[in-house]
Amino acid sequence: MYKFPEGFLWGGAVAANQCEGAYREDGKGLSIQDVMPKGIRGKRTESPTEDNMKLVGIDFYHRYKEDIKLFAEMGFKVFRTSIAWSRIFPNGDEKEPNEKGLAFYDDLFDECHKYGMEPLVTISHYETPLYLAEHYNGWVNREMIGFYERYVRTIFTRYKNKVKYWLTFNEINSVLHAPFMSGGINTPKENLSEQDLYQAVHHELVASALATKIGHEINPEAKIGCMILSMPTYPLTPSPDDMIEVMKEEHMNYFFGDVHVRGRYPGYMKRYFKEHNIKIHFEPEDEEILKNTVDFVSFSYYMSCCATADKEKQKKGNGNLLGGVKNPTLKESAWGWQIDPKGLRYVLNMFYDRYQKPLFIVENGLGAVDTLIVDENGNKTVEDDYRIQYLNDHLVQVGEALLDGVEIMGYTTWGCIDLVSASTAELKKRYGFIYVDRNDDGSGTLERYRKKSFYWYKDVISSNGKTL
Ligand code: BGP
């Protein structure tokens, strides 16, 4: 039996653009997601098109009360969502915020508190205002820091008494792989120079540190974290050359955590920049700003991958955003994401050894095709034993990491209610404990149904992990 700490923050996670819908309501501007009907692999469109599932999402904008009630029924202590930047600043560069957008999140956070649930808010989750992408080229442009600063000041001030836990950027390292989705960078990836890409990274890192500073000034009690896409890398063979590849791959991800926790650029990146002829432009204040380090480190975990020095085998796998070489010892999901519960224990230990900061697992889960059935009592449900198995196996490893002495604040499963996938923009890739009746052709009643995993998670939470 595993012992989870008292006050462990059990819950679930979503992002505004993948569930809210209402893409043009109450003054919202367009976000980059409104022109990404096919996710990261497809081309962006000029303007929103009807086949874009995110325009309606799961209609969370209108149904959040019903959904939060269901989360409360499972016993959630925390609910992670994001604020859609373009609801607050429709174009992104306005001087004054949109009051209706602010009011929506006031109501949403009040609703969470009604059930004793803490909101955990991602400030920017793959939803840069489209205008900022098209007119400024997103984070390549230093002016973004000022727009982001105005946005964070507005929301930190407004929700000072409602939100304690904040994340500055979702999976900040993913900008290296999906520059439009993650960084609002309009230059097509194939034309984007490494110089511009890493300058954009620098701007985001400065903006993140600035947000941490401002957040603490406005509310000294606030807990502000970074959020990293974690994907532990194993050597494909025991060869030292493969191990060096592992080190290089891991550096590319640790870079982001290192700056957030240590407040400065690591030596290995300086070497990388030198060897790739990249010159990061620092304004005189940047070094000081970067010293505003985070209170905790959060991350998503879905899978691990392998690295090899063998050029032939280096071809990228069809994995998560980061790709990677497949591990021949692991099974995979229907979308080719390799399933590796022990990798979660490993990554928790690695982060904790390196940073000695509290950790928060803010995404983990299985995307699967679910079949809605009618049970013996006449209720619609999904018998998702595969999801229960996946989550149980991962939580057992969280229990192991706790025994290893790792300090863990909480765990929020990804897509606690079915929502639109970030990578493929489909709804049939479902993660939820709650089934949403909506299909990729736009049909469906949007009704919600409790899956078998709903009751499983409820027991896990009420026993504080003892049922695992
Ligand atoms: C992460 C993103 C989420 C989420 C999740 C699952 O990379 O932070 O937004 O969607 O992955 O990915 P997908 O939706 O592609 O299955």
Automatic annotation (TrEMBL):
It holds the Pfam family Glyco_hydro_1. One of its GO terms (biological process) is carbohydrate catabolic process. Signal peptide: none annotated. The keyword Cytoplasm does not apply. GO terms for cellular component: cytosol. It comes from the Bacteria. InterPro entries: GH, GH_1_N_CS, Glyco_hydro_1, Glyco_hydro_1_AS. The active site is at 363 (nucleophile). This is Glycoside hydrolase family 1 protein. It comes from Velocimicrobium porci.
